[in-house]
Design goal:
The protein is mostly beta strands. The chain has helices at about 5-15, 180-190, and strands at about 35-40, 40-45, 50-60, 65-75, 80-85, 95-100, 105-110, 110-115, 120-135, 135-150, 155-160, 170-175.
Length: about 190
């Protein structure tokens, strides 16, 4: 498994935004969790293979939750999936992935989140942030105008710009030493036993 916190985010976001029909898992693997989407409205266009969820959208899949004001998912003729989650003015899209075994929670926020199944990329756009929490306390984070994770190569890019979550339109990245993270996990584990 990739060691970057974004690797976990990417796998989470891929699960989040590719809720459309998927192939059945092989017999020897664990079955994928159900996807539950709550919204005020749903419009499904069978001809164009597009689902549009609007109004306080909450999508849950396993330990992952996506919250947005609108979620539009589409599958093309080749089976490639794309999805866009957007927020109304004054709100943000939030993707939250919990990993209880590591006492870890990843939280991605932005004005928009896009998934491109063919390219294998997840992009958080506009006031983009990704934060890793250990036992509820923030540790690592990235801030920018746009953060892109490339699933196939396991790499990510962060871009500054006018709509950056970091001051001065720049990219800001904070990474804590692994020893500090290990100490926080040990402390959390001891407190819960």
């Amino acid at each position: 498994m990739k060691t970057l916190p974004l690797a976990l985010l990417a796998s989470m976001a891929a699960c989040v935004l590719t809720f459309a029909a998927q192939a059945a898992p092989p017999e020897n693997t664990q079955e994928a969790p159900d996807t539950v989407i709550l919204s005020d409205t749903l419009h499904y266009d069978d001809l164009n293979k597009t689902s549009t969820f609007t109004g306080n959208v909450v999508m849950t899949r396993g330990a992952m939750t996506l919250r947005s004001d609108k979620l539009v998912a589409h599958e093309d003729a080749q089976g490639n999936q794309q999805a866009v989650a957007t927020a109304d003015k004054g709100h943000v899209v939030t993707i939250r992935q919990e990993n209880p075994e590591k006492f870890e929670t990843l939280i991605a926020t932005g004005l928009r989140a896009e998934y491109d199944g063919q390219a294998g990329s997840i992009t958080v756009i506009g006031q983009a942030t990704i934060t890793r929490q250990i036992c509820g306390e923030p540790f690592d984070n990235i801030r920018g105008a746009r953060i892109v994770y490339h699933e196939k190569s396991g790499t990510y890019e962060a871009f500054g710009g006018q709509d950056s979550a970091a001051s001065g339109g720049r990219v800001r990245s904070l990474a804590q030493p692994q020893s500090r993270i290990d100490q926080a996990i040990a402390k959390c584990r001891a407190g819960r036993s």
